[in-house]
Amino acid sequence: MKYENALQRAIKGRLERAMELAELFGLFIIGIGTVAAMGALIWHMVHSDGVTLTDLLLMFLYLEIFAMVGQYLKAGQLPVRFPLYIAMVSIARDLILRAGANTELHLLIIRYGQARFPSNTDERRVEEAK
Length: 130
What we know:
Elements: H1 2-46, H2 53-75, H3 81-97, H4 104-116, H5 121-129
Helix pairs in contact: 1-2, 2-3
């Protein structure tokens, strides 16, 4: 009985260590990939005619990924807000990139969403008063 508990603890300890190493390896790969992508973006910006808003938003995405990896390394956990920031900037970047390709239906849907679900409570009160 005593031998089984010691064996279970030893196996559990080794599995936990293996999972920690796998997490660190994954974070390392994410960091290297982000550095490579940011380097390619900087190279593209230097050799292009100028810097666009989508380039800046993409760079901001890369910085958010770095912050997310850093937070995970420091605290060992990941707050929900980091993936949410990344998702919001990604959606904004996508909307900007597709701005020229938007049809009237897309704009109508965006306008309806803005009117139906305003971001500010004062705007909501104005809409309800109408």
